[in-house]
Amino acid sequence: MTLTVNLNADLGESFGAWHMGNDESLLPLIGSANIACGFHAGDPVVMRETVRLALANGVSLGAHPSFPDLPGFGRRAMQMSPRELEATILYQVGALQAMAAAEGGRVTHVKPHGALNNMACADEAMAATVARAVRALDRELILLAPAHSALERAGEVAGLRVRREVFADRTYQGDGQLTPRSVPGSVLHEAQDCVDQVLRMLEAGGVVSTDGRLLHTPIDSICVHGDGPAAVATARRIQIALQGAGYRLVPLPDLP
Fold this sequence. Notes:
Elements: E1 3-11, H1 23-26, E2 32-36, H2 44-56, E3 60-64, H3 82-102, E4 107-110, H4 114-122, H5 124-137, E5 142-146, H6 150-157, E6 161-167, H7 191-204, E7 206-208, E8 214-216, E9 221-224, H8 231-244, E10 247-249
Parallel strand pairs: 1-2, 1-9, 1-10, 2-3, 3-4, 4-5, 5-6, 6-9
Antiparallel strand pairs: 7-8
């Protein structure tokens, strides 16, 4: 049996005169793009250009909605009512859908960004709000959720097609949550360290924490953060390692 997996990255995070990442070099290496929708990064021009580049590279399109936190890059915790949060997600995903339609494509998945993603992984009520927003917009959308999370469970309860991801460049705590960025060692900066972590989790069949615990879970997708200086080199090394291990890399919608 051929093994399949998806490689995704967070892209389109430049805006105005501010440049972030190297999207043009990263896109040929991945299968799916999580495109910023303007609330933590991105602007209308950047969104449309990122959609155009992704489609030219055969990369599937995903919306990457966040808390309305442009100054904090969406990494600051915010408290929003379910009604406000649901509308905020609809607003952002709808904007990217418009850009995709203008370029002859369509959005096929949604992946929350930053603090919104982290909080929805642990907060059952917030996770349910995120899943409800995605389902209200289009129940055919894939919810890309961290493996072993409340968000994954909420998507399944909502009847969405859920795909589970792990992060190549972030370490995990014993409960399966990401190690907070404030903790030393929470981010892996060396490409080989990222490769080693990805292969270790795939071979073990689950999330492996820094203290050696294994949380069994399917792994459908691997994320490389596009804003790091080593993002392209890391993605290339992971791509080569996965192919060498017998994996076929596909866009999210093509996973069996």
